[in-house]
Every structure is written in C-alpha cells, then in structure tokens.
Specification:
Distance between the termini: 5 Å
Strand content: 35-45%
Order of helices and strands: EHEEHEHHEEEEEEEH
Number of helices: 5
C-alpha cells in the first residue's frame, strides 16, 4: 500500500502566490503531444521568460492548477518507495530532469516514452513540464517575510492535459510536483500527486511513479 502524508495548505499557497506574470520565477517549459495510442506527435522546449505574456499566463494557469488544487483531496503527498531509488528508477530520472532544468532532451524523451507506454486514455493529450526555482524567504517570529533567503527550492511540475484542435490544452487531468515542498523546504523523499477527480485514484500515474496503490 502507498504511504500518504498530509500536505500543509500554506506551503502550496506560498508557491502559487509566485505564479503570476509579475512574480514568476519559472525558468523553462517543455512538453510532448501524444495521441490516444501513446504516439508522440511533437515536442517543445523553451525558455519560459521568452514567452509572450499571453503565453506565460496560459501556461502559468496550467502549472498553478497542480499546487492550487484542494490539498489532501485532489493533491496528495506520497512517500517514494525504496524501489524507485534504484539506478535507472523514476526518482533518479526526475532528479536528473530537475537538475538539468529541462535542458537535457535525452532525459525528457525517456520520460515521455515512459508515460506513453503506461498512460491509458481515449483522447489526445499533452505532457507539460515546468522548472522553477523559489528563493525561500526567511520568516520572523511573527511569520512576516524578511525577504532574505538562505535556501532555494528547485522543483518541477508535471501536468497531463487533454488537447483539442491545434494542440489546445484543457485543464490538467493529473500531474505532480517533485520534490515535495514540505515545511518550507525541499523534500526529495516525497512527491505530491494531483488527480482532477479525487474519486478515481491516478492508477496510471502511480504506476509511472513506481508508487504502490
């Protein structure tokens, strides 16, 4: 059985408050378009800050949907099992994708291929990956931010969205944040998984992330 721990809603709100055009620290966005059979129709990879404001807004809406979801309902925190730590395991792949800031196409292609093999759906979809760095401000005893940072939280957000027409994305069906943002610090032993309908466990995503149901 998977190990689920509770998420502090304030941690997630701290991240989403930065997800505006004026405040974003997103560095890069990459992704892949898939048909219903899992064949890759195309990929993209670009510097987030070079996007037009309209594109930034659209993509921030997709990224924000994951941490802004109802915590401990649509968004749940799972402990990554030791099996996923093995050489070539999903945790190593995700750490590599994070560390290269989405700039290693070989790692990204491995991730897209793995999703294509294990994600089952009856419609075309897209896999979006976002890389972000957040300089965590210190907080005084009264919890006011001091705007000084001793730590940077580097993370990726993955969102899987249905697409229609000319690769136009809908709202995310599922996704995740890795590493988890736990008590205002990075925690690579946990991953936060999002499912748009909390009544249906994200079985495919749990399998992809090597987390037992």
């Amino acid at each position: 059985m998977s190990s689920i721990t509770r998420i502090n809603r304030d941690d997630m709100l701290e991240l989403t408050r930065r997800m505006t055009i004026a405040r974003t620290s997103m560095t890069r966005i990459a992704g892949s378009y898939m048909d219903a059979d899992g064949f890759i129709d195309g990929t993209f990879n670009t510097n987030f800050l070079k996007l037009k404001n309209s594109e930034k807004e659209k993509n921030l809406t997709i990224a924000k949907a994951i941490p802004f979801a109802q915590t401990n309902q649509n968004l749940k925190r799972y402990k990554i099992p030791k099996e996923a730590y093995a050489l070539g395991g999903i945790r190593q792949l995700l750490l590599g994708i994070k560390s290269c800031a989405l700039k290693n196409d070989a790692l990204l292609e491995s991730f897209y291929d793995y999703i294509a093999e294990n994600y089952h759906t009856n419609h075309d979809y897209a896999v979006y990956l976002f890389h972000n760095t957040y300089d965590i401000p210190l907080k005084a005893a009264d919890h006011e931010s001091l705007w000084e940072s001793e730590e940077t939280y580097e993370y990726i957000i993955c969102a899987i969205c249905p697409v229609s027409g000319d690769y136009e994305p809908g709202k995310p069906e599922c996704g995740f944040i890795f590493p988890a943002f736990n008590s205002r610090t990075e925690d690579p032993d946990y991953i936060d998984i999002y499912q748009s309908n909390p009544d249906f466990p994200p079985k495919d995503l749990l399998k992809i992330l090597q987390i037992p149901e």
